[in-house]
Design brief:
The structure is a single chain. The protein is 43% helix and 21% strand. A hairpin with a 2-residue loop joins β3 (43-50) and β4 (53-60). The longest helix has 23 residues, at 179-201. The chain folds into two domains: 2-206, Jelly Rolls (Sandwich), CATH 2.60.120; 235-323, Orthogonal Bundle (Arc Repressor Mutant, subunit A), CATH 1.10.10. α4 packs antiparallel against α5 (179-201) and α9 packs across α10. By secondary structure, it is an alpha+beta fold. Strands 1-3-4-11-6-9-12 form a seven-stranded antiparallel β-sheet, with helices on both faces. A five-stranded antiparallel β-sheet has the order 2-5-10-7-8. The chain is globular and about 70 Å long.
C-alpha cells in the first residue's frame, strides 16, 4: 500500500501538492476546491493493488475531482471505475447522469468519458473507495453497460447490498492482506461486482457459472454470519433463504473443502472464543455466551470447544485475567 497525505504539510501548500498528485497518480484528474476552504484542506489517499484491480481509498475535506476531455486525450487506460461511498456525501456525474451516493451505494463510470466527482462532508471528512480495472474484465456488451454509467446502484438492498458490504469490509482491512490474499481478493472482488451489475442489468445469463457460484457463496456466508445466534439456522433454512436446493448448497461448500454444518460450527466457536477473552463480558456466564451464538447444549458446546482449542471454555477464560 502507498499512502499520500497532506497532514504534515504547511496549510498553504496542501491543496497545491494534492492537485499535482491527483494529476499524475493513478488516473489523471484535475482536483478543485473552493478558495476559502484551501487553508483547511486535508486529504489522505491509500493506493493498493489487488492483482489487476487498482484500489484507492480517499479521505478528504470538500473537493471535486474532474476527469476532463483534455486529460482523457492525454492518457486513457480504457478502464471502468466503481466508486463506493464509505461516509459523507459523494456526488458523481457522467454522460449527463447525476447520482448522489449514500453510504454503501455504488456508481459505475468509464475512464474514456468526462466525469465529475464531488465530495462534500458536513462535519467530518468524506471517504470513498474507488476501484479501477480493465473494461474487458466485465462479461457484458459495452452497449449494455452504457445503461448503468453514472447511475446510483443502491447499496441497501439485493446484490448491491452484498457488494457494498464486501467493499466496506475491504476498506477496513486493506492494510492487513498478504500477497496471497490480494490475488484471491482480486478474483472475488470482480466476481462480486459482476454479479451486482448483472442484477442491475437483469443479465444473469451473461455471467459465467463460476462467477455466479463465487458470488452466491459469499452471499451465503454473509447470511450465516448475520444469523449465527439463531438456533434455527440450518442447511434447510439457508438453502430456502437463497432459493436453492439443499443439495446445491452442500455442493458449493464441498467445492471449498467444507461442510455447511462444520463451517457454521467453526464460526460459532470463533465468536464464543472471542467473547470469552473479552474483559467487558466478564460478568456473562459461559452458558449465556454459548447460547448467544447458537449452542443450545452446554455439554455439547464444552465438548466442541475443547476439541477445537484443546481447553475447556472455563480453562480458556482463565488465561485472560480481566475476563473472569
Amino acid at each position: 500500500m502507498e499512502t499520500v497525505s497532506t497532514a504534515e504539510l504547511p496549510a498553504k501548500e496542501r491543496f497545491a501538492v494534492w492537485r499535482e498528485v491527483s494529476a499524475t497518480r493513478w488516473l489523471p484528474v484535475a482536483a478543485g476546491c473552493d478558495p476559502h476552504l484551501e487553508n483547511t484542506f486535508q486529504v489522505r489517499a491509500d493506493f493498493s493493488e489487488l492483482g489487476p484491480v487498482q484500489v484507492v481509498v480517499m479521505t478528504t475535506t470538500p473537493q471535486w475531482i474532474h476527469r476532463t476531455p483534455k486529460l482523457i486525450r492525454r492518457s486513457d487506460p480504457e478502464t471502468f471505475l466503481v466508486t463506493c461511498s464509505v461516509h459523507g456525501r459523494v456526488w458523481t456525474e457522467q454522460d449527463d447522469r447525476h447520482a448522489e451516493l449514500h453510504v454503501g451505494d455504488l456508481s459505475l463510470r468509464d475512464s474514456s468519458q468526462p466525469c465529475l466527482t464531488r465530495l462534500t462532508p458536513s462535519r467530518r471528512a468524506a471517504q470513498m473507495v474507488c476501484l479501477q480495472f480493465p473494461r474487458s474484465f466485465l462479461p457484458f456488451p459495452q452497449r449494455a453497460l452504457r445503461d448503468l454509467i453514472g447511475l446510483r446502484i443502491p447499496g441497501d438492498r439485493g446484490v448491491g447490498a452484498l457488494s457494498s458490504q464486501f467493499l466496506l469490509r475491504l476498506v477496513r482491512h486493506l492494510h492487513t492482506f498478504s500477497p496471497a490474499d490480494t490475488a484471491r481478493l482480486s478474483v472475488l472482488t470482480l466476481d462480486m461486482l459482476t454479479t451486482a451489475l448483472a442484477s442491475e442489468l437483469d443479465a444473469h445469463s451473461m455471467v459465467p457459472p463460476h462467477t455466479r457460484q463465487s458470488a452466491l457463496l459469499t452471499e451465503i456466508r454473509a447470511f450465516i454470519l448475520a444469523n449465527l445466534g439463531d438456533t434455527r439456522l440450518s442447511p434447510d433454512t439457508i438453502a430456502a433463504a437463497h432459493h436453492i436446493s439443499r443439495r446445491y448448497l452442500h455442493k458449493l461448500f464441498h467445492a471449498e473443502g467444507h461442510t455447511v454444518a462444520a463451517w457454521i460450527r467453526e464460526r460459532r466457536l470463533q465468536r464464543c472464543r472471542r467473547d470469552l477473552a473479552d474483559p467487558r463480558l466478564a460478568a456473562h456466564p459461559i452458558g449465556a455466551i454459548a447460547a448467544r451464538w447458537g449452542f443450545t447444549s452446554p455439554a455439547h458446546f464444552s465438548q466442541a470447544f475443547r476439541s477445537a482449542y484443546g481447553l475447556s471454555p472455563r480453562q480458556f477464560r482463565q488465561q485472560y485475567p480481566g475476563a473472569h
